[in-house]
Design a protein that fits this description.
Layout lengths: L1 H17 L2 H4 L8 E4 L1 E3 L7 E3 H13 L3 E2 L2 H9 L9 E8 L2 H14 L3 E5 L15 H9 L3 E5 L7 H7 L2 H23 L5 E3 L7 H9 L4 E3 L18 E2 L6 H5 L6
Parallel strand pairs: 1-5, 1-10, 2-3, 4-5, 5-6, 6-7, 8-9
Helix pairs in contact: 3-5
């Protein structure tokens, strides 16, 4: 028995040297996605962040040594643990396509040379009944900068909970498919894109919506649950922090990765 015990201990020690825990463990992933909607000189609603505050937030990111990475790079790290993002990485995105993204945020994007992903619902773009929205020409300009990626926020930003109650099951299924597919198609055709990322309107999703999005060709989707992206998250409901005008100084830095 003593001989067999000695052999077992030797085997365990040898295997620990051949396969150390540091190699077996995946590198950690902890990256916040910071979500903006509207900018402007004054507060008009809870989703507005005044332009000077956004500028101060970007300065803080730069001065404190955080690194803004493209959303795609975060997804690569999520899918390929052997290629982690830089330490203290942050992702910036903006939903809806409000004209202030062009007039106020885009100049800051160029000044700070940071990548940003815009999630757009194309029914509002260049629509006279939606004067708050960007135009196709403006979207083409921000895309041409090489700093901005453009992805889907469905076709007209529906509230799927409301629509599920008002429509018969078959009609609702078709409505969901139209919202998901038409947005991709229009953005692809108008801007020469390959759209495969989706931001859930109002952060609403469920298993059926996730399946419909996957069937429509989306490879990742994003909610508005307030926590950083880790490898425990599901790829079709990755969380994001909505940034507000109150997120200044230390309060803003608490949204960022730990030092």
């Amino acid at each position: 028995m003593g001989r067999w015990l000695a052999l077992l201990v030797t085997a365990l020690v040898t295997s620990s040297f051949l396969c150390p825990a540091s190699e077996a463990a995946e590198p950690p992933l902890n990256v916040p996605i910071l979500l903006y909607h509207r900018l402007g000189p004054v507060l008009t609603d809870d989703m507005t962040v005044t332009t000077p505050v956004v500028e101060s937030q970007l300065k803080l990111i730069q001065e404190r040594g955080y690194q803004v990475i493209p959303l795609r790079k975060l997804l690569e790290a999520y899918n390929e643990p052997e290629a982690p993002p830089p330490e203290r990485s942050v992702v910036l995105v903006a939903d809806d396509g409000h004209r202030s993204v062009y007039t106020d945020l885009f100049p800051l994007i160029k000044r700070f040379q940071i990548p940003v992903t815009l999630f757009i619902y194309p029914s509002a773009i260049s629509n006279p009944s939606a004067p708050y929205a960007m135009t196709w020409e403006q979207l083409a300009e921000v895309k041409a900068s090489g700093l901005v990626d453009i992805q889907s926020h469905t076709f007209w930003h529906p509230n799927f909970k409301v629509d599920k109650k008002r429509l018969a099951p078959a009609a609702y299924d078709k409505f969901v498919q139209d919202q998901l597919v038409k947005s991709k198609t229009v953005l692809d055709q108008r801007l020469g894109l390959k759209v495969d990322l989706l931001a859930w309107p109002f952060g609403i999703y469920d298993d059926d919506l996730i399946k419909a999005a996957s069937d429509a060709g989306y490879v990742a989707a994003f909610s508005i649950e307030r926590r950083p992206v880790t490898r425990t998250e599901k790829v079709m409901s990755l969380p994001r922090f909505i940034v507000t005008d109150a997120d200044r100084g230390d309060r803003f830095e608490r949204l960022l990765p730990p030092k």
